[in-house]
Specification:
Elements: H1 2-29, H2 34-38, H3 46-56, H4 62-75, H5 88-123, H6 128-142, H7 145-160, H8 175-209, H9 212-219, H10 224-261, H11 267-277, H12 280-308
Helix pairs in contact: 1-4, 1-12, 5-6, 5-8, 5-10, 5-12, 6-8, 7-8, 7-10, 8-10, 9-10, 10-11, 10-12, 11-12
Length: about 325
């Protein structure tokens, strides 16, 4: 497995280099002069414009700026914010725990809810419960995240004169207020994921239930629960784990809306603020960080296949 991991890590390098090239080219592809746009008040001196152009790498050719940025990434230096001069790496690391908590709770709740529902729907195929669960999952996929977030924010205030606390506090500072804002945000972020996993789980479990080894287990007198847990669940989970890896990027994208709606100081909110303020180094740093995280997640997903199905060998 070690050799397989090393090969995968080496194979990720070209993908990362392409991502970095796109990120560096992003500023140059924008219409107009970026420096003039950022210094639109007209009071900037030529020296200020030159400093900003140097900070964005616009005073260099594209290959030179690319090599400079790649070197910075290798050193862990993603540049500094144009407005606060705070290192982008520090900004991302300070916001990452909030996004990780929201996404982690969303994934955990999605798995705990959707997998049992998907298995139940498959076992009770074509029953009223199956139709109800399938309809619910379709509704969950169809509902936009911002609509669900608005409903969670507005309806309690209209019906019970209660509102979600929009002042973020850590769990150590105020546990109850922390949970009151993290749990609704995680629910919004994980709703579509739960519905998608439930549908995938139903489909894969239906296929597994028709396999010969499942019939053999029934012939040996095992209970349905034992058959599903011991023989069916692991095999049915492989496509679901693949789906989780693919949906991870969507979770990060959804965090932009969720964190903005619930005023959470996470990476999604950082990205939205940077886009609004045209803070290009921060935008570039967040895109690179998310890209690396997605590649690492896909590697972990591939490694999990061997645990779920011992027949899979990494050679």
């Amino acid at each position: 497995m070690t050799r397989y991991v090393l090969r995968r890590l080496i194979g990720m390098i070209p993908t990362l280099l392409v991502l970095l090239f796109i990120v560096v080219s992003l500023v140059r592809l924008l219409p107009g002069n970026v420096v003039d746009i950022l210094l639109a008040d007209g009071r900037a001196t030529a020296e200020t414009k030159a400093q900003l152009a140097n900070k964005l790498g616009l005073d260099q050719s594209l290959p030179e700026a690319y090599i400079r940025y790649v070197g910075g990434v290798i050193r862990g230096d993603l540049g500094s914010s144009l407005w606060t001069d705070v290192p982008v790496t520090h900004m991302i690391m300070s916001r990452a725990p909030v996004t990780a908590e929201v996404a982690g709770v969303a994934i955990l709740v999605s798995i705990l809810i959707s997998i049992p529902l998907g298995v139940t729907s498959a076992v009770r195929q074509d029953s009223f419960l199956d139709y109800a669960l399938r309809s619910g999952s379709i509704a969950g996929i169809s509902l936009p995240s911002f609509v669900v977030a608005q409903a969670i924010v507005v309806l309690p205030a209209l019906w019970w004169s209660k509102s979600i606390p929009f002042q973020y506090q850590t769990f150590a500072e105020n546990p109850s207020q922390h949970l009151l804002i993290i749990l609704p945000a995680s629910f919004v972020l994980g709703l579509r994921l739960s519905a998608t996993i439930a549908r995938m789980m139903r489909t894969t479990m239906l296929d597994v239930l028709q396999q010969d080894y499942m019939r053999t287990a029934r012939a040996k007198g095992l209970t349905n629960f034992g058959i599903i847990v011991r023989h069916g669940l692991k095999n049915a989970l492989i496509p679901v784990v693949t789906l989780l890896g693919l949906q991870f990027a969507a979770l990060v994208g959804g965090s932009v809306i969720t964190e903005s709606m619930f005023a959470l100081p996470g990476i999604g909110r950082l990205l939205l603020d940077a886009i609004t303020r045209r803070d290009y180094p921060v935008i570039q740093g967040v895109v690179v960080s998310v890209g690396i995280l997605v590649m690492a997640t896909n590697l972990l997903v591939d490694l999990s296949y061997g645990y779920l199905d011992p027949r899979i060998r990494y050679s």
